[in-house]
Amino acid sequence: MTEAAAIKEEILALTAQHVERLHATWCHMFHSQTCVKYLHRLKQHAEAFYSDLLEESEDKQALIKRDIAALQEEEVQLLGQLYGGDAVEERPENVPLIVWQLQLEHTVEQLREELPKRRAEVQELQLQQEALCGELGAQPLPLLLDPLPLPQELTAFRQHLEQLSSERVARTKVMQELRQSIEQQLQQLENDEAERRLLSEIKEDLTPETFERLRALQQRLAKQWQELREDIDATREKILGLWQRLEEADEARMQLVRDATEYTQSTRRVLQEELQRCQLLFHGKLKTIIQQLRVEINEWWDRTMKSRQERLRFASYYTDWYNEELLELHELQLEDLKLYYENHKEIFELFASRARLLTRLDELGAKSKDPTRFQNRGGQLLKEERERRDIACKLPKIELQITELVRVHEAKCFGPFLVEGENILELMGRERRHNSALKKTPCSTLRCQPTPATVQSKLGSQHAQTSLRMGTPKGANSTQQQRLLRAPGTHPKKKLQDSSKLVTNENENVPEDSFKQFTPSSRSSLLPVPRNILVQLDSSGNISKGKTDKGTVQQQPGGSKPLNLPTPRASRMWLKRPKD
């Protein structure tokens, strides 16, 4: 049994006990009808007591419920303002009304305290935003006091303020850099106070309008500084050109200009003074300067391989009326020639390389016609042949590169590329055809015909060497020596007429078509032949060859008599034989 049930039992027992005592007392005092009457009155009193007590309790319950309802309504309102929600927690069945009322009162009290704090926070955020937006010139975000912003809205607003703060820091840094840059530009330009006054009038806020004004001022100053820089560079270039033309030797003035290296108004003034001084001197030496320009133009004409007709087109070159306009025309012509050469530098370099190779090829061809070239035993012929092959390989490649570059030029300029007034492609084609025709010409027709005296001297030299090997007596005269080389039925004049077929070396005999037959595989023909070659004259007076076989010589056709030359071994033994 619970405590409440026990108390109710005690109340019922106490009530019953008191009623019994009252009834007994009334029965002892009054007759039975009066006792019944008093019992009815006691019942009425008991009913009235319990009715009043119950009514008072019910009134108290209703009051508590009204308070709870009011608290719940206020809670809903506060929650709606603070959090945007209207969900109210229902009272559990086992929770008494008074307890629930106390809980609601506590909750509502907390919400009441939070509401002014929220409003104060919103007002503070509004003030921060107003300050930042006013400084940055940005549009503020809406933030109302009624209704109050939700917590997530406040979080987003705080992030917005953080971004504004970061933007303020960045703009402050940029503002400082801009102002420092403008100050440096003003110092370089040595500008008047107008620009500085304009800079001071610009507010130091961080609005886009301020930045636009500062950037506009910076751009204007940068443009002025760029113009100053270009003016200084142009003036310096003019001064250097005038120095070169005037052959300036005033070291003090030159050093003053060299020391003025900064781009400032002071440098401009120094250069302007020097330019004016040089121009005064220049007008006095105008004729000499124009003549120097003509020398340079002539050099560039040669470098760009201009023809006589192309040079005559520049009529100012041949004018004797010297003035500034004539000077300007010469300068423009020189600049055009340099630009033309620079644009086609690769073509000119390749063409010059081709010309060098052709010149070297002609030199090698001239060497191949030299009748004494076979006397060289140092491998020079092999080197020349190797160089000739290299040139033959390089020339087509160079001409192909020139052709490709010229085709590009023709596509761009819609005209041929001229060298000495002629199309370079036609010129190279004509030179190729000419060189091909020369290669097909027999070498015997290209060689120089020797004179009779030369042939006679060569014959005498060969005969002397041969007679020494054969042991010819010292007292033998030239007539006897010539008889050894003369075959029956021949005459010296016939030999002189065909002397172009002779070979000057005693160990070599080269046919007249040997230049055409020379190939890399025939290098062995350039090696010295053994000394057992027999030298003799045929019926036509030409020198012929015969090989010995164990010291004997075969009989040659035509009735010629062989020379009894010893073998190489016997020759060495004969040379070692002591004199009698």
Explain what the structure shows.
Helix 2 runs parallel beside helix 3 (97-136), helix 12 (345-368) runs antiparallel to helix 13 and helix 16 (452-470) crosses helix 17 (478-485). With 580 residues, the protein is mainly alpha-helical. It has a 3-stranded antiparallel sheet, with no helix packed on it. Strands 1-2 form a two-stranded antiparallel ribbon. Strand 4 (543-549) and strand 5 (552-553) form a beta hairpin. It has 20 helices and 5 strands. 69% of the residues lie in helices and 3% in strands. It has helices spanning 3-29, 32-83, 97-136, 151-189, 193-201, 208-246, 251-259, 265-284, 286-303, 308-312, 324-343, 345-368, 380-413, 424-440, 443-446, 452-470, 478-485, 492-497, 514-517, 568-576; strands spanning 418-419, 422-423, 533-537, 543-549, 552-553.
